[in-house]
Design goal:
heterodimer, A: 310 residues, alpha/beta, five-stranded parallel β-sheet, 16 strands, B: 250 residues, Rossmann fold, nine-stranded mixed β-sheet, two-stranded antiparallel sheet, 6 helices, 14 strands, binds flavin-adenine dinucleotide, binds adenosine monophosphate
Chain lengths: 310, 250
């Protein structure tokens, strides 16, 4: 068995999601190769080679892979497939979700999305219906193509020394191109890997009021997230959304402020170790899953919380 | 320009589904069914493109059981011009749906297909991307803004760190994210008019597509229940408990 892991990176460095994908690959057993398709992506390739268990890093370099479109990223991976690989794995992030289905379709095999547990090399567990059910599915296809939920697989140790091999990038299809990006700048820890996450909902009332959460986040070195309602209302950028159709988080501590607890929100955070909810409505569903519920006005309680931390 | 909108009939997003006691799946008998919310957004976007004079015809397509006709009628009431049901009782997985849609695209020759980013039942998030690959078309998944001019679609898409802009040559695939638009409601007169719009039916066999499932579901279980419901009286108690009981802050 040989597994191909698709690395997510910004050329200079590797995204933390890649470590989780490698961890899932390690659970499958077999040799692990990591594909870094990019431009001047030596830095990312070296980082990938350092994960324990990585036998080989395949580095494809081309100008059109600097900020690749989905079809170009997929075709470079496909140039290695079917080949010697039994599995193709990527993290279930925006990157993996865009590219992995294209690879599965071209190989004429099923894709298994958001795998949370690996029971056997052909048998996987995944959430359906916003995590209200978990299905165990078996694939009979010759190549298993998966995206994996990052919170379900801890990154492996570093200190390994996989070989880096240069491969040819597939030609630019010319069908599309990335013309720009607006990335949210933040000094805070990344939402999906932070130890503490504080999320705000419609109860915050405005983007200005999110400053209350920032002061608390500063004390706790926390990342900031949000409900869909807060994002739709424009209080915070779209990439803050936690939930079924946003980001999945599982920090040690999740603090939900002014969030009612719709199933779509719970789907993205209910695997957190400890959940705190602050809401003025004692009947809010979020309290049913909170370890520590605090009923009251967030505008009084959040500043008090921040002050209490000293 | 013709736009094809694939729509899926799913358990309504307000329903909390129950897992069947024999572990074979979730119980969908007598449960409210609706159009997948992301597909409502897709229909709305197509209707707006028609209102702007960019699109000339909107064709809604659904793959599945006969009851999907109801969902297609909703799409017609929202502004689609005609509808096609690809009827089958076989459980359809994303790859099979993508193949059916690719076969239909070969006949219908749309210049744009707008899908939902994710069906809220299987949460697969695959079909649009698979379809793009099968057709060798470019894709913009998770769209929050779509502009079309001179055979080029310029799409702003939601990515993990913010947004990204992609330019695609038509024909192309777009999948919708939540912020693309706010779908309208169907009005009574439009619901009446929709009853007279054409709805045709075909089958996987007629399209020459093998839809046999590739994945076997071995079992479906409920997630472990979280023991919540704990309350604290005030902030002092909260902070004390987080420090000494939960030990998640210092
Ligand atoms: C297809 C689809 C996908 C979705 N995906 C997601 C998703 O990924 N993530 C997500 O979060 N949602 C998602 N949703 C939306 C979800 O159904 C809810 O609408 C949303 O989570 C509600 O956000 P909220 O809790 O902030 O707002 P509300 O439900 O309006 O709750 C606001 C809460 O704030 C409290 N509050 C108000 N003022 C105060 C105050 N001063 N002090 C204390 N408390 C106060 C209120 O008591 C209330 O409980 C999705 C919906 C659909 C249809
Ligand atoms: N049975 C179906 N019929 C028509 N369209 C579908 C069907 N299944 C999925 N789709 C489309 O594909 C999108 C993504 O679905 P999925 O890949 O299953 O998450 C949906 O929002 C629909 O636009």
């Amino acid at each position: 068995m040989t597994i191909l892991v698709l690395a997510e990176h910004d050329n200079a460095s590797l995204k933390s999601s890649t470590g989780h994908a490698i961890a899932a690959a390690a659970r499958l057993g077999g040799d692990i190769h990591v594909l870094v398709a990019g431009h001047d992506a030596q830095g990312a390739a070296q980082a990938a080679a350092q994960f324990e268990g990585v036998a080989k890093v395949l580095l494809a370099d081309a100008a059109h892979l600097a900020a690749p479109t989905a079809d170009n990223a997929a075709s470079t991976a496909l140039s290695l497939l079917p080949g010697a690989y039994t599995h193709v794995v990527a993290a279930a992030t925006g990157f993996g979700k865009s590219i992995i289905p294209r690879i599965a379709a071209k190989l004429d095999v099923a894709q298994v999305s958001e795998v949370t547990a690996i029971e056997a090399p052909d048998t996987f567990v995944r959430p359906i219906y916003a995590g209200n059910a978990f299905a165990t599915v078996q694939s009979k296809d010759p190549i298993k193509v998966l995206t994996v939920r990052t919170t379900a697989f801890d990154s492996p140790k570093t200190g390994g020394s996989g070989a880096i091999e240069t491969i040819e990038a597939a030609a630019d299809s010319g069908l599309s191109r990335v013309t720009g990006a607006e990335l949210t700048k933040s000094e805070r820890p990344e939402l999906t890997s932070a130890r503490v996450v504080i999320s705000g909902g419609r109860g915050l009332g405005s983007s200005e009021n999110f400053k209350l959460l920032e002061a608390l986040a500063d004390k706790l070195q926390a990342a900031i997230g949000a409900s869909r309602a807060a994002v739709d209302a424009g209080y915070v950028p779209n990439d803050y959304q936690v939930g079924q159709t946003g980001k999945i988080v599982a920090p040690d501590l999740y603090i939900a402020v002014g969030i009612s607890g719709a199933i779509q929100h719970l789907a993205g955070m209910k695997d957190s170790k400890v959940i705190v909810a602050i809401n003025k409505d004692p009947e809010a569903p979020i309290f049913q899953i909170a370890d520590y519920g605090l009923v009251g006005d967030l505008f009084a309680l959040v500043p008090e919380f921040t002050a209490e931390l000293g | 320009m013709k736009i094809l909108i694939p729509i899926k009939r799913v358990v309504d997003y307000n329903v909390k589904v129950r897992v069947k006691s024999d572990g074979s799946g979730v119980d969908t008998t007598n449960v409210k069914m609706s159009m997948n919310p992301f597909d409502e957004i897709a229909v709305e976007e197509a209707v707006r493109l028609k209102e702007k004079g960019v699109a000339t015809e909107i064709v809604a397509v659904s793959c599945g059981v006969a009851a999907c006709q109801e969902t297609l009628r909703t799409a017609l009431a929202l502004g689609a011009d005609r509808a096609i049901l690809i009827e089958t009782d076989v459980e359809l997985q994303p790859l099979a749906v993508a193949k059916l849609l690719a076969a239909l695209a070969a006949e219908e020759k749309p210049e744009l297909m707008i899908l939902g980013k994710q069906a809220i039942d299987d949460d697969a998030n695959q079909t649009g991307q698979m379809l793009a690959a099968l057709l060798d078309w470019p894709q913009a998944a998770f769209a929050s803004k779509v502009d079309i001019a001179a055979g080029v679609a310029t799409v702003k898409r939601e990515v993990d760190g913010g947004t990204e802009t992609v330019e695609m040559k038509l024909p192309a695939i777009v999948t919708t994210d939540l912020r693309l638009n706010e779908p309208r409601y169907a009005t009574l007169p439009n619901i009446m008019k929709a009853k007279k719009k054409p709805l045709t039916t075909t089958t996987p066999a007629a399209l020459n597509v093998d839809v046999a499932p590739r994945l076997t579901t071995l079992k479906v279980v409920e997630p472990p229940k979280r023991k919540g419901g704990g309350k604290v009286a005030d902030v002092k108690e909260l902070v004390a408990k987080l420090r000494t009981e939960a030990k998640v802050i210092t």
